[in-house]
Amino acid sequence: MEIAALRTAHPDHWQKATAIRTLTLDAVAAANSGHSGMPMGMADVATVLFEKHLKFDPKAPAWPDRDRFILSAGHGSMLLYSLMYLTGYEDITLDQIKDFRQWGARTAGHPEYGHARGIETTTGPLGQGIANSVGFAIAEEIQRATWGKQIIDHHTYVMAGDGCLMEGISQEAIGLAGMQKLGHLIVLFDNNNITIDGTVDLADITDQPARFAASGWHVQSIDGHDPVAIDAAITAAKADPRPSMIACKTHIALGHAAQDTSKGHGALTDADQLQAAKQAYGAPLGDFEVDPAVKAQWEAIGARGAAARQGWEDRFAKLSAAKQAEFNRTYAGEAPKKLAAVIRALKKQISEGAPKVATRRSSEMTLEVINPIMGETIGGSADLTGSNNTKTADLGVFNPDNRKGRYIYYGVREHGMAAAMNGMALHGGARPYGGTFMCFTDYARGAMRLSALMGIPTTYVMTHDSIGLGEDGPTHQPVEHLAMLRATPNTHVFRPADTVETAEAWECALTSKTTPSVLALSRQNLPTVRTTHTTKNLTAQGAYVLADADGKRQAIILATGSEVEIALAARDLLQEGGIGTRVVSMPCWELFEEQDEGYRRRVLPAGPVRVAVEAGIRFGWDRWLFGERGRREKSGFVGMHGFGASAPADRLYQEFGITAQDVAAKVKSLIK
Fold first, then answer.
1. CA angle in degrees (0–180, nearest 5) for 191-195-201
2. How far is Cα 47 from Cα 528, in angstroms, rounded to an integer?
3. According to a count of CB atoms within 10 Å of the terminal CB, is the N or C end of the chain lower?
4. What is the maximal distance between C-alpha atoms in the chain?
5. Which residues 6+ apart lie within 8 Å of 154 measured at CB?
6. Distance between CA 304 and CA 436 in Å, rounded?
7. 3-class DSSP state for residue 651?
8. Partners of residue 583 on adjacent β-strands
9. Helix (H, G, I), strand (E, B) or coil at 89
10. What are the b/e assignments for 627-650, b being 16+ CB within 10 Å?
11. Do the Cβ atoms of 31 and 102 come closer than 8 Å?
12. Confidence label for 672 from pLDDT (cuts 50, 70 and 90)
């Protein structure tokens, strides 16, 4: 259909959609960078969605029962920013549109969660948004079953492009959503047949509607520029019990000289072509100019949600005070007051009984006291439930027949699991955690990085954390993974030595509001090293003196996790030889780094030689060995220097030289 025909067929709709297109063109031109084509192509779909279907209130962007709108094709961010400005979100003003992609602006190149109220998630790495949306939809299903439809009953809408669907994570997400029958999830596929390199068939010939249908989705294919067809398709999608995908056939960079070309994907900055497109649209020709009547129509669309939001507030007010308080607590991300008490009680029990268990089992023991008092936790595993120890008896399994279940079998989908958990955390009212083998953080890495970037408290339960897993061999033995995770900003990496430290790590994770946590847990049994009960959470300090020197302090051994046991045994050997040795347990480097200088100096004073022991690579340890008042010539490391091998764990520790004798020998070699 020609532009003129589109203009005349539905003139009111056309004018509203045109405002998105012209704002996009002007913002990208002003920034001299960005992606013009996707917002121009999907403007019609967005207009129909916001005008006729989306439940939202720009004046209350955090309203819990709003519909969620996720722009998975995050490069088309000007679509979202235009909609937010036009409908009246206070954080996105016209000045913010003019400052697109500039320092300090809320209008970043890709949507950034936290920059402006109304941006539901950070997208840009393709496929993440559609995978997040599965978590949003799962959280909505659980909360609808828990609180009732009067309190929670909304949809999650996603705009995704060819790139999102080419990314492997998309199939993980699509398969999970189809199996779970997430009927309140609707994907709007921008089917424009264009990628940066050229037409899609340069790299892919997948029949996307057939792929979704094969995964259990309701599928429709429509003209993405026909508002009547768009409206009818969304209406049908909302009525179907399955998740829905609507393939919207669109023209990228509609009405511009670059329409239907790979050039149309990127920044369209030519001034003459820009003016020609505006003329073809019948739009005002001024920079960032929107017809006041059109802006008023958009503002009226935004204002409509106030009545629905007020109705929700009225219904919410009818809940008992206790229920309101519990709902508000979970949405505020606050841990219940009981949490500290149950953690303390568990710690006391463990210190007195001193069991020898793997820290993955320690984690399960902790979850057994946490999950009954935190109804917002949602657990799961990527097909390793029995190995990760992530399921407690009280949770119940989430599936189409039990929407109150809080345990998810993710299947072999580490990346999809991580991204879905991010979606749950972003939805609000949920505390997701999920497990796999630590080595497979490689597969989950993209979503784990976004947890940190967005500042959301997703918890990753990563078991089988070293060569200590034994016979599965080097493909499964993490060596560089601790260093990789510790190198990630805003991530707390916990490697607890026993059940007490594991319980403390969980308390830290569940009281965090803006930092994700990784729990690196052992397969092998470990002794209880904290045999004296303390009410204080020592893990929250990051590192602490576990055993001090008898006599003059000549050495400090630093260790984490399963190697704390080795450090203590090495201390015994050294003390027998008259070498006073302190052992410092360092369950979380990041938290130790946050402690004040005085505390760090007390734990790591100048003078003694320092040896670190950890069954991973050395990378990062020098920060503690010859930083913090240490000396290079008086420090050493006992750990891994390459990949592992397949053998029983005890043999591996011997062969790789990670024993108490090796640590003691290293200390002695440094004392002169």
1. 75
2. 60
3. C
4. 93
5. 55, 65, 66, 67, 68, 140, 184
6. 45
7. helix
8. 547, 557
9. coil
10. ebebeeebbbbbbbeeebeeeebe
11. yes
12. confident
User: What spatial distance separates the first Cα and last Cα of the chain, rounded to whole Å?
Assistant: 85
Question: C-alpha angle 11/14/15, rounded to 5°?
Answer: 90
Give CA–CA dist 419/171, Å, rounded.
12
β-partners of residue 459 are 433, 517
Candidates 84, 76, 9, 87; CA nearest to 37 is: 76
Q: Write out pLDDT tens, residues 546-602.
A: 999 999 999 999 999 999 999 999 999 999 999 999 999 999 999 999 999 999 999
HSE of 58, CA atoms in CB hemisphere, 13 A: 21
Backbone angles phi, psi at 291, to 5 degrees: -55, 125
Helices vs strands, H then E, count in the chain: 27, 18
Coil/strand/helix, residue 473: coil
DSSP letter string over 380-415? EESS-HHHHT---TTS-B-BTTBTT--EEE--S-HH
| Mean pLDDT within 119-144 | 98
d(CA 339, CA 332): 16
Residue in the block written with tokens 């067809």: 229
Q: Is the pLDDT of residue 227 over 70?
A: yes
Contact 564, 497 (CB under 8 A): yes
**pLDDT tier for residue 504 given thresholds of 50, 70 and 90:** very high
Q: Rounding to the nearest 10 degrees, give the CA dihedral for residues 102, 106, 109, 114.
A: 140
3-state secondary structure 575-630: HHCCCEEEEEECCCHHHHHHCCHHHHHHHCCCCCEEEEEECCCCCCCHHHHCCCCC
User: How high is the pLDDT of residue 372?
Assistant: 98
Q: What is the pLDDT of residue 192?
A: 98
In single-letter form, the type of residue at position 225 comes to H
How far is Cα 323 from Cα 570, in angstroms, rounded to an integer? 53
**Phi and psi, residue 238, nearest 5°:** -65, -25
Angle between helices 321-332 and 305-317 (to 10 degrees): 130
Q: Is the pLDDT of residue 157 over 80?
A: yes
* Whole-number Cα distances in Å, 473 to 438, 521, 644: 13, 17, 7
Residue 151 clears pLDDT 70, i.e. is over it:
yes
Burial of 80 (0-12, 13-18, 19+ CB in 10 A): buried
State whether residue 422 is helix, strand or coil. helix
The active-site residue, picked from 112, 167, 414, 614, is: 414
Pairing of strands 492-494, 635-639: unpaired
Q: Is 414 labeled as catalytic in the residue annotation?
A: yes
The predicted-structure confidence for 185-226, as pLDDT tens digits, reads as follows 999 999 999 999 999 999 999 999 999 999 999 999 999 999
Q: Is residue 116 a contact partner of residue 92, using CB atoms and an 8 Å limit?
A: yes
Residue 659 CB neighbours (<10 A): 18
| The pLDDT value given to residue 1 | 55
Q: Is the pLDDT of residue 266 over 70?
A: yes
Strands (E) located in 21-90: 68-71
Tell me, what's the pLDDT at 172?
98
- Residue 471's alpha-carbon distances to 475, 476, 477, 617, 654, in angstroms, are 10, 9, 9, 20, 14
